[in-house]
């Protein structure tokens, strides 16, 4: 394997994050001697791939374009190998309620939740629907779009009076909202990578935002969040978090790499929040921190990819 195309950019709200991730991946591969090109997923991509196919494509696209399986579907059509999950697995992980149902069936805990499209609030009356949600789930709540990442459109709601505004913010980034019971505990991310074809859980990264929560600014502004690797968990809790990430990776049919976001409660129970098939690779992203703690690098992973 010599020539790698890194796909970055796209037209989602996370375009700048993707470009930053792409540059870091490209630099890491170049330093290991690979021939690397960074390309956009635009009208020029397919002619390029057909005329001069690379040995491998590394998609670092975020949002629908990079995580709903569509780009990988096209790469499969062309017979070009790529890093990451197959299209069907991407679709399962990309839709948070679907992923929650699958991992719950696999025995994992995930916050109790309600999933509702914007039309329901319009047709049935927002006030009545929100009152029913609060009666069912209690407070506080966490509201986020069912699809998307980087905490865009996501809100922690402590008072019922703040819920309408949170819904408006959520619907600015998607037409379907996931409203979860807020779980308190230690927020961690556990990466899974395949070494010699065997899924391996990386050390958990503990997330400690300087503000109240781990929002977009906290994720991508240096100094806004403290990261501790390995996370300050008991030995048993750390093992349960790693097992949860591996279970989610396998249950969703993922491959090569993934990142599972969890809340570990004081009694050591990991609650799965979501699974990411295209983890960020920026200087403040979680998977690179976990790789570093495990003494692994991005180039070391590529030869294991068929």
Automatic annotation (TrEMBL):
Binding site for Mg(2+) 2: 274, 276
GO molecular function: ATP binding; D-alanine-D-alanine ligase activity; metal ion binding
Cited function: Cell wall formation.
InterPro entries found in the cross-reference section: ATP-grasp, ATP_grasp_subdomain_1, D_ala_D_ala, Dala_Dala_lig_C, Dala_Dala_lig_N, PreATP-grasp_dom_sf
Catalytic activity reported: 2 D-alanine + ATP = D-alanyl-D-alanine + ADP + phosphate + H(+)
Domain ATP-grasp: 100-302
Bound cofactor: record note: Binds 2 magnesium or manganese ions per subunit.
Record's keyword annotation contains Cytoplasm: yes
Binding locations of Mg(2+) 1: 261, 274
Compartments where found: Cytoplasm
Names of the cofactor(s): Mg(2+); Mn(2+)
Pfam families in UniProt: Dala_Dala_lig_C, Dala_Dala_lig_N
UniProt protein name: D-alanine--D-alanine ligase
Catalytic residues identified in the record: 14, 150, 285
Pathway: Cell wall biogenesis; peptidoglycan biosynthesis
Gene3D superfamilies found in the cross-reference section: 3.40.50.20, ATP-grasp fold, A domain, ATP-grasp fold, B domain
Catalytic activity, EC: 6.3.2.4
Gene: ddl
Classification via PANTHER family: D-ALANINE--D-ALANINE LIGASE, D-ALANINE--D-ALANINE LIGASE B
Source organism of this protein record: Actinocorallia herbida
């Amino acid at each position: 394997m010599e020539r790698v195309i890194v796909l970055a950019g796209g037209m989602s709200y996370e375009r700048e994050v993707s470009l930053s991730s792409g540059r870091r991946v490209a630099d890491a591969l170049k330093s290991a001697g690979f021939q690397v090109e960074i390309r956009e997923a635009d009208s020029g991509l397919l002619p390029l791939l057909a005329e001069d196919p690379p040995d491998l494509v590394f998609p670092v696209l975020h949002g629908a374009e990079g995580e709903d399986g569509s780009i990988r579907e096209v790469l499969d059509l062309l017979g070009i190998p790529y890093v990451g999950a197959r299209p069907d697995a991407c679709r399962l992980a990309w839709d948070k309620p679907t992923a929650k149902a699958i991992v719950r069936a696999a025995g994992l805990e995930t916050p109790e939740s309600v999933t509702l499209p914007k039309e329901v609030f319009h047709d049935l009356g927002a006030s009545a629907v929100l009152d029913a949600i609060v009666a069912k789930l209690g407070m506080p709540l966490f509201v986020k779009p069912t699809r998307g990442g980087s905490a865009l459109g996501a809100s922690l709601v402590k008072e019922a009076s703040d819920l309408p505004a949170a819904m408006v913010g959520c619907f600015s980034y998607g037409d379907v909202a996931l409203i979860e019971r807020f779980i308190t505990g230690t927020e961690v991310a556990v990466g899974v990578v395949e070494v010699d074809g065997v899924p391996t859980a990386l050390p958990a990264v503990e997330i400690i935002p300087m503000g109240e929560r781990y929002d977009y600014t906290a994720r991508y502004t240096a100094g806004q969040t403290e990261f501790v690797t390995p996370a300050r968990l008991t030995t048993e809790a750390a093992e349960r978090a790693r097992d949860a990430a591996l279970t989610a990776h396998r249950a969703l049919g993922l491959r090569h790499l993934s990142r599972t976001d969890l809340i570990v409660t004081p009694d050591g129970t990991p609650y799965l929040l979501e699974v990411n098939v295209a983890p960020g690779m920026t200087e403040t992203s979680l998977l690179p921190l976990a790789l570093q703690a495990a003494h692994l690098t991005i180039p070391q992973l590529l030869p294991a990819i068929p």
